[in-house]
Amino acid sequence: MSVDTMRILKTYLDNPISKLALRFLLRKDKKYGKTYLEIAIEDLLGENSSSSLNIRIAKAIIKKAIKNSAKAFNVSFEDALETFRLPYARRALVSVLKGILRFGVTKPFTPGAPFLVVWDYTYRCNLRCKHCYIAAGGYDRPEMSLDERKKALDILADAGVTIIAFSGGEPLMGPGIFEMIKRADEYGMYTAMATNGTLITEQVAERLAKAGLKYVQISLDAPIPHIHDEFRGINGAWERTVRGIRNAKKAGLYVEISMTITKLNYHLVPQMLELAKELEADLFMHYNFIPTGRGAEILELDISPQEREKLLRLLAEKTIKNEIQAASTAPQYARVSLQLSSVGEEILLAGHFYRQKCKADSNVVALAEFIGGCGAGRAYIALEPNGDIQPCVFMPIKVGNILKDDFNELWMRNKVFLELRNRELLKGACANCQYKYVCGGCRARAYAYFKDYLAPDPGCIYNIDWWNRAIVAALGKQVTNTYSK
Fold first, then answer.
1. More confident residue, 8 or 378
2. Model pLDDT, residue 484
3. Can you say whether the dihedral through the CA atoms of 191, 117, 188, 10 is positive or negative?
4. What is the mean pLDDT of residues 86-104?
5. What burial class does residue 54 get, using C-beta atoms within 10 Å of its C-beta: 0-12 exposed, 13-18 middle, 19+ buried?
6. Positive or negative torsion for Cα 269, 329, 137, 296
7. Phi and psi for 200 in degrees, rounded to 5?
8. Cα(253)–Cα(213) distance, integer angstroms
9. 110: left (phi over 0), alpha (psi -120 to 50) or beta
10. Distance (Å, rounded) from C-alpha 14 to C-alpha 19?
11. Are strands 380-383 and 116-122 parallel, antiparallel or unpaired?
12. CA distances from 427 to 316, 424, 447 (A)
């Protein structure tokens, strides 16, 4: 969603009279299997026509709300309505409204269903990456059958999930992946994939696009082939991955190049940014290294808080200046972005899976706190190949199983989720930080280092003491900032 859209929604939700209509708007119509709100918007957009009294009432409510909000923010009714042309935008709206009903207007915000589910679709993989969070590879671990996968997707769709990202392992090695992408797209979900890219031939890229995939995240860890190959465990991986990036672009997919940054490649980031531009990537993503899975074996390669701070400033500055488009899974990116600009200047409003450039004003901080930085268990969850549900792919805490437990009940009342959403429970420097609602620290890093997801994030510049404590405890020695110059 854009900043303007979020402001329009905020205006609508701040009206107490409007709140009385929410439960009605969010009721599902048995015939269409959608909420009255979604059907009414489709009707306003000319996508269908219904003579039902309930839909006509919903249409009148929504039309008035959009007109009033559009007027308040000096945009046309047509432009405001067009925001919801895409089906996943409507799903996101429903999730926001459900969140208001279920949890209130919290800081940071919790939607009525996860905005994003990262589905580790399979443990199978053709590479052996040193940092792999689930130690992928092989066929010996239990996974859901294809029918069970379909049931799992149906559950997520019915709950109102907006974005589904197929990951792994290597998702292209999972059974029925193209069918599952198509199924998710038909539900109106935004479909994405995280892949090593080595299997994306021209034909595969075309099939992915035809199935309805919108977004592909392809991992590339260095601009130098042998460094990438050594980290990924297979010779020739770099060339196949770059070929996969080109094929995905040719097929019209939105391509993100992701780089898991460690001391092995920290000094290569500027060159990687240039390579990303050369390959015409739509986005560069810094992936926070989390020492879990096989990554726990290379903990000494984690960059220091000082190095991470320098990196995040570099990415934010270049994005603000339009030199690149960059994001980060480090929640400190939101705080760094806010600190870079003064009132009236262009600023990057960043979140866990959100970014938007806008002019800095008093509303920006409020929106940043609404988005809320780390989304683990709050705006996003992970689904494992066997159906287990976790707060984050990097946080191996089983909270339930999608085939055995009530998904909505877990989202509403699970203790781990509730604690992750409550920033008042954070410990150490994170508890007292003025940016705790904007950032919140990486809860997966806290868990990886301290086995406590409420502990301080040792990757933050404000937590140097905790970083030193964590490193000494893990390695018995301090680690230098190898590439801090």
1. 378
2. 36
3. negative
4. 91
5. middle
6. positive
7. -85, 85
8. 7
9. beta
10. 8
11. parallel
12. 27, 9, 12
Tokens of 10: 């905020």
Q: With pLDDT > 90 as the criterion, what percentage of the chain qualifies?
A: 74
365, burial (CB in 10 Å: exposed 0-12, middle 13-18, buried 19+): middle
186, 212 contact by CB (below 8 A): yes
The confidence score (pLDDT) of residue 343 equals 52
CA distance 287 to 296: 16
Amino acid 320 reads I
Tokens of 423: 């920033």
Q: 216 near 172, Cβ under 8 Å? A: no
378 neighbors 372 (Cβ within 8 angstroms): yes
Length of the chain: 485
Span 145-164, average pLDDT: 97
pLDDT tens digits, one per residue of 19-72: 777 889 999 998 888 999 999 999 999 998 888 899 999 999 889 888 887 887
Give whole-number Cα distances, 329 to 142, 289, 382, 454, in Å: 29, 9, 15, 18
- Asked if residue 287 has pLDDT above 90, the reply is yes
357 — pLDDT class (breaks 50, 70, 90): confident
Residues 6+ apart with CB under 8 A from 311: 261, 266, 269, 286, 303
pLDDT tens digit sequence for 215-274: 999 999 999 999 999 999 999 999 999 999 999 999 999 999 999 999 999 999 999 999
Tell me, what's the pLDDT at 320? 87
CA–CA–CA angle 174, 176, 179 (5° rounding): 135
- Asked which of 74-78, 100-104, 204-208, 477-481 is least confident by mean pLDDT, the reply is 477-481
Interatomic CA distance for residues 323 and 450, integer angstroms: 37
